[in-house]
Design brief:
The protein starts with 10 loop residues before the first helix and ends in a 5-residue tail after the last helix. Helices cover 71% and strands 0% of the residues. The protein contains 14 helices and no strands. The longest helix is centred in the last third of the chain and has 21 residues.
Amino acid sequence: MTAPAAPATPSADRHARGLALLHEVAGPEGAGVLDGLAGIAPDLARLTVEFGYGDVYARPGLTLAQRQLVNVAALTALGTAAPQLRFHIDGALNVGVEPSAIVETVLHVAVYAGFPAALNGIAVAKAAFAARPGLDFTPVRSEADGAETLRERHERGLAALERVDGEAGERVVAALADIAPALADHIVDFAFADVYSRPALDLKTRELATVAACTALGTAGPQLRVHLHGLLNVGGTRQEAVETITQMAVYAGFPAALNGIAAAREVFAERDAAGRTGE
């Protein structure tokens, strides 16, 4: 049986809607980036507007600020798209994201894509901030007490791990005990005590960034599942999870998004079976 066709949306409407959103994110000058495609791939420019903005960005479920931060996380993680990362850092500033939140999102990705990716992302952010001389930005420093003992740091990390990932995170750490206990300690001490516990981003935003990065990488299915649980544990919704993954079709391709949705389907089913919606 053939599925009913979706209601037709005139291409002109999609284009106008997408162009309006592109201007809101990028500003009139930023939107001019598409002009360079006119002489070689005008339809790529049109599809960027109609699909990327008219179809995806126009959907409910995430604010423009959230959409920009998940793009920053994904493009930092990919490590191969510095011009696009710069575009979306500028876009994040244009829609009201604080510079400290952008820096913190890039720093956060060090956990999932490594320090080279984060260092390159910070270099792009630095250039974007420098191009705005009037930008008010003060680096955020960790609130951790310099007198904290290693045991206190570890306990703080365990508390953050429990708050975010719950049993799923604890299982990851426990599974390393017999082969790489030091790696388990690094997850607790660095990822959760040093990074997740920092100010400038709330836990839900950190988990949205993590879902975006793990989806975009395409090599982190188990970790994506853990952090989909984590997103729901800290107040995120299923709609926000699905929208974040759907947006990755634009920035990391449909295979990455399809694999991400498959992971989300499994996580939602597990939570339903356990009576935990996470909404």
